[in-house]
Amino acid sequence: MIAQLFSRRTAFGDAAVLVDALPPRQHVLVTGATGFIGRRLVAALAGAGHDVTVLTRDPAKAAALRPPIRIVTDLAQIASDARVDAVINLAGEPIGNAPWTRRKRRRILSSRLRVTRAVNRLIARLERRPAVVVSGSAIGWYGLWQDETLTEFDGGKRCFTHRVCDAWEREARKAQRLRVRVVRLRIGLVLGADGGMLRRMLAPFALGLGGPFGSGAQWMSWIERDDLVRMIAYIIATPSFTGPVNATAPTPVTNAEFARLLGGALKRPAFVRIPAFVLRHVAGAFADELMLGGQRVIPDKAQASGFVFRHETVRDALDAILGDATGGNLAVTRPMPVTRSAPAEQLVDQPAVEPAARLLRSLRAR
Ligand SMILES: NC(=O)c1ccc[n+]([C@@H]2O[C@H](COP(=O)([O-])OP(=O)(O)OC[C@H]3O[C@@H](n4cnc5c(N)ncnc54)[C@H](OP(=O)(O)O)[C@@H]3O)[C@@H](O)[C@H]2O)c1
Predict the structure, then answer these.
(1) How is residue 207 annotated by DSSP?
(2) Where are the domains positioned within the chain?
(3) pLDDT per position as a tens digit, 339-350
């Protein structure tokens, strides 16, 4: 098993370099630290010697994060005289793992507002306020567009993801009244092998069953996960960043192009187009907003500030992520819940990414 081939130290990789931009010994509070983005961020921060406090509902899950960290289940556990230099607020009910029933929509919205309000209450009672809050949002804030390029200076169109992100951002902005710099990070589709959209796409594409969604003309604005972690550190360290910031790579692609590139990276055909009506029938508005619709977002502020992306193109990002199944990002996976569609033999004592990694190795060997 890949996870067992790597020692704990090696398995966390060289994540520490991702936060090189930070001054030494920062005290950072992370919510959503056990998630796909958060766990890589924590590995980087803790690995670089920063003091990390994580808020979680599940201390057992957080115990698997890169040590040393402090785990809290309620921000009330943080003393008023504690030092917190920066808050990174990512927690929220997953948005892309199930159809948006009324209950699911409520949880998506209320979980983000609840955690962000708790962060604001903490900031209000801290004797020394943090310098910055980097609070999650998503490119869904812009709503659904065609081919227009969007920067932080554009407006948003109404839809469910816009409503969620807008309410989340408004709550986060309240920390400005406490004289704290607030950055609202409009995150694009995050690419990494052990989570997010790519993880869900890997199995069908590796089997040659992948392809575009609907017409494939919809735009996908993406960012490689390590670049996102680097950007978060850069934003914390750069006081001129404030307000909305697009966390996307400079070269968004259409869904058809993404499918072609992913198929190419896996050396598999990617022609199995899933018709829009099928996706709509199965997933309703979820399909319309997350699979069939999109937005072409440009990281205007990051580029203007001189932030350098390591992965500017999808091809480059996929090469880095999939290039070496035993030494690349696939090696830093944690065990995670298996998917119902995984073949039975892969469900036994395996991190979910291991089957995809094995499949990739065998495809490459041919
Ligand atoms: N991944 C992407 O492509 C992407 C793109 C745009 C925006 N974002 C946003 O960025 C944030 C982090 O993304 P991610 O992919 O790392 O998310 P993730 O893997 O789903 O992790 C989110 C974390 O939030 C916490 N959480 C989950 N449900 C919650 C609930 N009902 N109430 C309170 N906390 C809850 C969980 O932490 P505990 O279980 O430890 O409490 C979990 O580890 C999310 O808010 C997401 O919407 C992600």
Answers:
(1) T
(2) 13-365
(3) 222 322 232 223
